[in-house]
């Protein structure tokens, strides 16, 4: 007999600054700082474990309604802004749990543990509490990913101008870059990749090389970004700190998740200059494909930085840009 599936909503409260457990009446953040963990109180299963706040979805509730209720009951706050993010299943002894994660970036009320649970603001680069509920551990890695994923455009700009603009972007906080130049020879790709990796690492940014694992190792990049055809042939996760893939279907996303990849790029969302007249997903279809993803999904195709919020609203982790990143 199969395990019962229990729908659970989980709120990842994000803040950008250093504050006490007691928060102002209205708080807004961009997710660039810390997140809230709560300790399960005595009398509950897994008592003493730390987790993201949330709870079971009751009959007749939407996911967002359930999250509103749970955070009010547990923390005494009212959600102002929450973005759908990931959905992931986990098998506990008492049943199969489907965790529906939201990133909560603003709320009203005085945040406190209404169930006498301890609260702690944490960062992904140095947890100071333990143990953590097993189902939430994978989230810490996903939270390290920035909202913007920039794709190189050296062929169009010229390598010198591209590197100048890359340095400007890195100085302005860019943290994730893909080197992708399909028209370049391998030697030209090698030289550009070496330049990008050297510059990015000075700024604490990470670099993925498109489709070429050997080149990624050679230039000491942080990871590889696979093509869809490489995903079809892939039997195990490549041996890199970061692994991503370009996807065009729900099955692509599911396969990437099964392989344990870090994130996917789903495209094209909107019409693009490079493929005029080609079919595109649109935001509604993008949301349908992203809503069941267990790993972060970046939106790509015809997007500008101003599209970040609409991407979040439709379940994207962030946006990927080529021309418009530079």
TrEMBL record:
Task: Tell me the protein's name.
Answer: 8-oxo-dGTP diphosphatase
Name the family the entry cites.
Belongs to the Nudix hydrolase family.
Q: Which NCBIfam families match?
A: PRK08999.1
Q: Which organism is it from?
A: Candidatus Nitrotoga fabula
Residue limits of the Nudix hydrolase domain? Answer: 16-146
Record has Hydrolase as a keyword: yes
Gene Ontology annotations of biological process type: DNA repair; DNA replication; thiamine biosynthetic process
Q: What is its EC number?
A: 3.6.1.55
């Amino acid at each position: 007999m199969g395990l019962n599936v229990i729908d659970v909503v989980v709120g990842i409260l994000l803040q950008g600054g250093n504050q006490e457990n007691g928060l102002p009446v209205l708080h807004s953040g961009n997710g660039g700082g810390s997140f809230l963990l709560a300790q399960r109180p005595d009398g509950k299963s897994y008592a003493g474990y730390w987790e993201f706040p949330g709870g079971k979805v009751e009959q007749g509730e939407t996911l967002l309604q359930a999250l509103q209720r749970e955070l009010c009951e547990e923390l005494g706050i009212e959600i102002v802004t929450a973005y759908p993010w990931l959905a992931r299943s986990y098998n506990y002894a008492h049943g199969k749990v489907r965790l529906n994660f939201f990133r909560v970036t603003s709320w009203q009320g005085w945040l406190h543990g209404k169930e006498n649970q301890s609260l702690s603001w944490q960062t992904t680069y140095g947890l100071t509490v333990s143990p953590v509920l097993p189902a939430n551990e994978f989230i810490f890695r996903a939270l390290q990913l920035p909202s913007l994923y920039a794709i190189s455009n050296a062929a169009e700009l010229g390598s010198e101008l591209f590197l100048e603009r890359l340095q400007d972007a890195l100085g302005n906080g860019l943290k994730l870059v893909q080197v992708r130049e399909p028209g370049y020879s391998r030697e030209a790709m090698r030289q550009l990749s070496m330049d990008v990796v050297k510059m990015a690492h000075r700024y604490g940014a990470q670099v993925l090389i498109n489709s070429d694992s050997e080149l990624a190792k050679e230039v000491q990049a942080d990871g590889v970004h696979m093509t869809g055809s490489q995903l079809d042939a892939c039997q195990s996760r490549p041996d890199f700190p970061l692994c991503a893939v370009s996807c065009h279907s729900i099955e692509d996303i599911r396969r990437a998740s099964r392989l344990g990849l870090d994130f996917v790029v789903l495209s094209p969302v909107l019409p693009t200059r490079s493929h005029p007249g080609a079919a595109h997903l649109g935001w509604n279809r993008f949301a349908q494909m992203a809503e069941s993803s267990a790993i972060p999904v970046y939106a790509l195709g015809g997007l500008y930085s101003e599209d970040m919020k609409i991407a979040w609203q439709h379940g994207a982790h962030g946006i990927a840009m080529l021309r418009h990143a530079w």
